[in-house]
Amino acid sequence: MKFGLKFLPVKDMFYSVIPTVGTYLEYLNGADNALFKNLWVSLGVGLVVSLALAILFYRENVKTFKKSLAEILAVGYFNHFSGRLGKLVKSKVPVDFSFPDNSLKTFTTDKINVEIGIPKNFSSLCSYANAVERKAEIVYVREASQSEPFWLRANIDNDSLLIYEYPRTLFSLSKYLKDDFGDSEKAEKSSVEVYAYFKQKINQLRIAYANEIANDRLHFIDV
């Protein structure tokens, strides 16, 4: 990730890094070692240690930023898609679906299953998205609690409906991590870490809202 001063907060420098120089100076000057009797040598050692701490702070702050970003996207995705669909298929009210041929089909919720592909990296996200677009149709859900229908991709499997989902929101990461997702090679490498945070948060939300969604018909798969 491209270096940015925002990941090296002044408070970390003031409270942790800068005092370290003074601490090491005081300690090393009092040591029974001729090498550290030289003020500049002592100062140099203190600065090296302080620089190491600054790098550590920086890396931890970058990691925290990426994790927070992934968790925000995960919460948004779960609330607007997985959570919404989970509550929909858990209800006992039959659901109407409008298909491309203008036909309207009704399914009881025990006949609705949702496959949610959670990618491990950028290429797997693209591959799964392309596969879903090839094999599934766009259908509109006419939910009684919503004034307007919303669309999703699904196929009829015998007498059941199989809905395909994946976190499209992950495509937006390139807007926030431009340097990490500047080209395909960088995106592939950087996505592994961020997607892992995303998956971890999704799993936490599944546990937290287990009593509100139909986990037996929401099938999260690794892709």
Give an overview in words:
It comes from Parapedobacter luteus. Residues 70-205 form the Prokaryotic STING domain. The structure is a single chain. The chain has two domains: 5-61, no CATH class; 63-222, no CATH class. A seven-stranded mixed beta sheet has the order 2-1-4-5-6-3-7, sandwiched between helices. With 223 residues, the chain is an alpha/beta fold. Helices cover 52% and strands 18% of the residues. It contains five helices and seven strands, in the order H-H-E-E-E-H-E-E-E-H-H-E. Strand 1 and strand 2 form a beta hairpin. Helix 1 packs antiparallel against helix 2 and helix 2 (39-90) crosses helix 5.
Outline the secondary-structure elements.
Elements: H1 10-29, H2 39-90, E1 95-98, E2 104-107, E3 112-118, H3 122-135, E4 137-142, E5 150-157, E6 160-165, H4 173-176, H5 184-208, E7 218-222
Parallel strand pairs: 3-6, 3-7
Antiparallel strand pairs: 1-2, 1-4, 4-5, 5-6
How would you classify the helix and strand content by structural class?
alpha/beta
Number of helices: 5
Which stretches are low in confidence, meaning pLDDT under 50 for 5 or more residues running? none
- The radius of gyration over CA amounts to 26 Å
The total count of strands amounts to: 7
Task: Return the average pLDDT rounded to an integer.
Answer: 78
- Elements, N to C (H/E): HHEEEHEEEHHE
Form type? elongated
Largest sheet: 7 strands, mixed
Calculate the terminal CA-CA distance, rounded to whole Å: 25 Å
Neighbour order of strands in the largest sheet: 2-1-4-5-6-3-7
Helix content: 40-55%
Please indicate the percent range of residues in DSSP E strands (runs of 2 or more). 15-25%
Number of domains: 2
